[in-house]
Specification:
Blueprint lengths: L1 H5 L2 E3 L3 E3 L5 E3 L5 H11 L1 H15 L8 H8 L7 E2 L6 E3 L38
Antiparallel strand pairs: 1-2, 2-3, 4-5
Bound molecules: zinc ion (2 copies).
The site of one zinc ion (ZN) has 7 residues, from loops.
Length: about 130
């Protein structure tokens, strides 16, 4: 994961953050300081780092179309359906049977109630400036 932070650091000759141009540490490779710096100053970068770590650790996404497998096999009986590739149980008796025929129903957006126009700002503290 330090690889990720390293891409956001510069060594000239001290450790400098490329996000804010701040010197992080007088040492060349003080990843602990970098870690702290990003955690405190760049939470978005920090969160992104963790997101990538999580992605890297997560099981590989199965390339099989699970929905298709379910659709093809769900009508064949009462046995559970397991993906041959990732061994995941895709459907088992008792699960809701997915709609096989016809397109999925369109999602009808709830009719948004138009907000009443508020023209009179009357008592508006921010208006006075
Ligand atoms: Zn920084
Ligand atoms: Zn699978």
């Amino acid at each position: 994961m330090y690889q990720f932070l390293r891409g956001r650091l510069d060594y000239r000759p001290m450790m400098v953050c490329l996000e804010c141009d701040q010197q992080i540490s007088p040492l060349i490779d003080d990843m602990q300081a970098a870690y702290m710096h990003f955690r405190e100053n760049h939470p978005r970068v920090f969160a992104e780092m963790f997101r990538r770590i999580k992605e890297a650790l997560a099981p590989k996404k199965c390339l099989e179309d699970h929905d298709r497998i379910i659709r093809e096999h769900v009508g064949h009986g009462t046995f559970k359906i397991q993906c041959r590739k990732c061994r995941r149980i895709l459907w088992k008796p008792g699960d809701p049977v997915p709609e096989v025929h016809g397109p999925s129903p369109e999602v009808i957006p709830a009719n948004p109630v138009p907000e009443p126009e508020r023209s009179d700002t009357g008592f508006d503290g921010e208006k006075a400036a």
